[in-house]
Amino acid sequence: MKLEILGTGCPKCKKLTELVKEAVTELGISAEILKVDKINDIMNYGVMMTPALAINGEVKVAGRIPSKEEIKNLIQGRRNNMQKKKVLFICVHNSARSQMAEAFLNKLAGDKFEAKSAGITPGKLNPVVVEVMKETGIDISANKTKGVREFIDRGDIFDYVITVCDESGCPLFPGNAEQMHWTFADPAGFTGTDEEKLAKIREVRNQIKTKIEDWIKI
User: Fold this and answer.
1) Contact 35/3 with Cβ under 8 angstroms?
2) According to CATH, what is the number of the domain 85-217?
3) What's the pTM value of the predicted model, to 2 decimals?
4) For the chain: N or C, fewer Cβ within 10 A?
5) Active-site residue 13, yes or no?
6) Predicted local distance difference test score (pLDDT) of residue 169
């Protein structure tokens, strides 16, 4: 097993190295612990923030110092079912489309994927979206809207980043994640009577659910 500490010699990098060594010793395993401290080499991993820890060439943690227990779980391949692919859905305000996509993926394929969602400029959770999701047996009423910057600053790593906007302003997320774009109409722009808007949001909900169902079959 190859464990790589990515960073330019900062105190946090040294602390991470110490924790990794302690974790390896306590687990009683054989591992090669390497230091990656050249800027170009670090950038090749798609890492924006250090320190970072890569296991067998795959970045697992970036921009923070994980606990020794977390490192041990990562090494053993058990952290939050590490085999799960991590997915981030992005829309404009994280108030409707990305929330529905996150909820459906976690519901339909939570054994294979761990989904989260964010917005470019987080707003307020759309109450009609909460209502139509309850019709499918999924309660998102306690969800909070989140900004993309929150995940970037924390150094979260994703396997897939999927924008679900219909606007041209959907952002790219830094890192090596596979970037995808699924177009859905924005419920915030729907007009008409309450019943007409409700029907349109149900339509978007169903489109997102169908897209998720088709995607997880691939």
Assistant:
1) no
2) 3.40.50.2300
3) 0.66
4) C
5) no
6) 61
